[in-house]
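Hi, does anyone understand the following?
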Amino acid sequence: MVENEESVTKPADSEGDQGRAPVPHEMRRPVVNKSPTHGLWALTKRDLRKWYTNPYQLIISLIQPVVWMGLFGKALNFSSFITAGAAGSSVNANAIMLGFFGTTSYFSYLVCGMVVFVVLFNSAFSGMSVVWDRRFGFMNKALTTPVSRGTIVMAKIFQSVGRSLIQAAVVVVIGIAFGMDTSHFTVTGIAGAFLIVFLVGMGLSGLFVMLSLRSSNWQTQQAIINLLNLPLLFASNALFPVKIMPGWLQDVVRVNPISYCIDGIRQMLIGATGTYALWLDFTVAAGFAAFFSVVGIVMSWRLLSK
């Protein structure tokens, strides 16, 4: 993080310096840029470079949501099921779909859930990058620089959020290619949906980075990912509406911040009838992001060490 260099030579006309040769370039003292934003950008860019220079990581990370959309989403054609049970009336089927899912297209409903699905799984591996940096010695080097521990944590969060935004956009494009309803798309709605993606990405990345601060064993971190990911996904409204779940599971879904994020995305992208008020979705998403970002920084002061 050397931004420029300063010569240690003195003016030629100073006393006792007449005729002194300039100090060679290689002997000049580097000036260290101690700005927090400079360190944050340098560390974030390092992690992002490792990702975008390896396109296979992007492709592999998109396979699972594409399988869910292409196979699960298309196979569960609820409209056809309901139409068959409603004496062949598509009008009745649409009314029932609106009552259960808030939209007449289950596939569009599922795509919005898959947007947060990729954010969840991408964020889980932000903690894994902390473990690998520790194992390969980079973390020790970073801790010996003027960069603060909180900056190291935020760099991990921001690189994960950047990846999540790109992957979420790719999922939406694939969903449109598969038949997602775009009749409710607006510039404001798309911007609001990706703002929620940004917030939920910050919250989830902060959670997983926080859980990895003292870990140097990738198997332990992998176990944590497996323990949290599926419960967070299935105990939400990503795949099915809350109203058809058992009462005890509905209570779990209501305290799962991912449910509010998905609900907000559905309202803004496909015009679905919201389970919660849109302002509440944004409030929960913002609080979730702020809480785990702050907790991650505070815990790094004590737990992040060489």
Remarks:
- The CA atoms of residues 161 and 201 lie 5 Å apart.
